[in-house]
Structure prediction request, 206 residues.
Amino acid sequence: MKRAVVTAFITISVLSAASGQTAGPRPGAGRCALRLADAPAVRGLRLGMSADQLLALFPGSRENPDIKSKLEWARRAPHYGLANLGFTRGDYPTAALFTNVTQFNIQLFDERVTDIGIYYGGPPWGSVDEMVARVSEALALPGVEEWDASGPSTKALRCEGFEVTVTAYGDGTCCSSLRLRVPAVDQRVRERRVAEEEKARREFKP
Prediction:
């Protein structure tokens, strides 16, 4: 039990420290000072929550063989601690989270949530700014003027410890999405990949 607590503490500490690192100037950098610990919860989902806390939100997911195998595979090479899980309304009809939602795509790193993708079946939006304004208000995030355009239908808010992306089509199309992620995880995965490749070269025997 102590070992599990220590492992969780180390993972959160690494993510928190890495999330404060920047790879150079980016659009919007410095506008949002929120850190990973300040990331908002959406329908009970929060960046940094444990795998157990995540699965508790989806009744029956603990027994899902696909989810169990992906969590197990994440501990082995070449996954480097990453597990990508999908939750659809058809598979979890009793989960209250699925009101107006068709699917959740969740990424975990060392069994901690680092990427949350939510895909909505409605309502239609007149523009991406309209949805951004609603998301900002509901999640207590900076206003529309602090978000950067990432395309005609997408805007992103880059904070110190996490990023939020909203996609909504301004033609009355029903579907839209919201994503929260910890970008620092990408660097951690690269470091593990490089370390493993270096180890393989050192141990190579012709």
Remarks:
- Residues 2-203 form one domain.
